[in-house]
Amino acid sequence: xxNWNLDDLYLGFNDKYNQDxxxxxxxxxxxxxxxxxxxxxxxxxxxxxxxxxxDAHVLVRTMASFAMLTMSTDVTNSEAPLYLSKIQRIxxxxxxxxxxxxxxxxxxxxxxxxxxxxxxKKYLFNLENEQKEAKHLLSEKEExxxxxxxxxxxxxxxxxxxxxxxxxxxxxxxxxITLSEVRNLAYDNDQMIRKDAFEAEIxxxxxxxxxxxxxxxxxxxEVTVMNELRGYTSALxxxxxxxxxxxxxxxxxxxxxxxxxxxxxRYLKAKSTYLxxxxxxxxxxxxxxxxxxxxxxxxxxxQEIVKVAFYGYSKRLGDFAKKAFEKEWVxxxxxxxKRGGAFCSNQPQLKQSRIMTNFTGSLSDVxxxxxxxGHGYHGEVISSNDPLHWGYPMPLAETASIFCETIVNxxxxxxxxxxxxxxxxxxxxxxGDTQVIIDILSRFIFETNLFAKTQGPxxxxxxxxMMLSAQKEAYLNGLDHNQLHPYMWLVKGHYYSAGLNFYNxxxxxxxxxxxxxxxxYIKNPDTFLKSYDDLxxxxxxxxxxxxxxxxxxxxxxxxxxxxxxxxxxKDIDEVISLFKS
Length: 581
Hints:
Number of domains: 3
Shape: globular
Structural class: mainly alpha
Largest sheet: 3 strands, mixed
Strand order of the largest sheet: 3-5-4
CATH architecture of the largest domain: Orthogonal Bundle
Distance between the termini: 42 Å
Number of helices: 27
């Protein structure tokens, strides 16, 4: 079955796991005592906080990851959520102290202290961000109350979405299959299978739309209430703060994306004609394979393609992929109770990663594997950073994944001389670009409009209407307006986290930033290699804008985004030309 091996984390929820849980509890009690001391000496006080955070970060990441990874491939597992709840309870014990310390930071000159303490200097960026967050904190009692209630409120609604979709039976023709399986049929070579699968998917969602719409409505309403209490003007403002990114950068990118909608509209209309439709392209045929590359890949073939392409870029990248495959870091195939989609969970404390896919053999699945391994490579680079520099903001999270996906896609294109085979690979890549630019734009529009309505309950009917409206605005007339997908809000799990809103535009940032970086790589491969790894290491330590500027890229200017979109436009022009040949 090609299941991942989690033994390096834990062998189960056993004695070792419980010992680490007790260790975390004891560490937390010492931390609470440290923070509550009277008239502390500033340097020792802040260093004590940072040392605890480093140690706790390692322990919590290991324990929480094991529980979440276990749940990802078996949502019916009853132990994992109980242990996650125990970890959350221990973390909540120090909520008041976390607030107390953050407020304390507003009373000191961090730059002056950093000159006297290497540890404070190392984490100055982190501490300065905490200083900024202080103005958005509630009282200690309110923060404690919310930390306790969040698990029962938005946390519970999020679990409901996961359980409901992972266990959703879909009746496809004469058999029952999983949601992941029916969605993967969108890539099938048979148009009637694609159409029937789409209709089966839509019908299955009608069975769960009431409870999932209620879950999403309540999660977003909770976010709105808490942001108002904290003094944020919007959920987007908080997301940008969390992303270490300015609105100037976001506005420049979104504006450029909107400008290029007509080019994607041209591509989708051309694809519709190519497939024989008399109308604009129906949603179910967006992922239809074209050309003559009708091959389905075995997982072993996918591994070989990825390794050859990665080694063509650098030995370090190739060695990483080889290691991930050999050490069973990948959970490969769909199965009942397994989450849909794909993700990578970096484990820098072990210098490892774990990757989940739902591989069925399509070319898209091969590129998804490359994409997630890119996340893993990012984790490989930052594993040499200090523990509090293991997390990168959302926009930069997609940098390495998109870059690696581009490497594999270009490798495949380099092997092809037949125009119809070239069309298959190039158009498959363009499908992905369309999702990450145009569909992401629809998700951004939808979430913006959803938050605008969260002063009260938002019904399933409103959600479906908003999603259809957002798709029309993003795709223009590229898709048949009578054949859209009203349930995309139900499909995408990113909407269902109270702490992670607008997880849509970072994908567009990653794609376009990655394409900009790849253009630099083509111009000067030798000097790029070292600079690129330095960039990945820097993603955890500074702002999005400063990170980009390390490669002489100004992401606040629309010109950069237009240059990247021009690369996509060239692919659109070639694909349309190949459609006609």
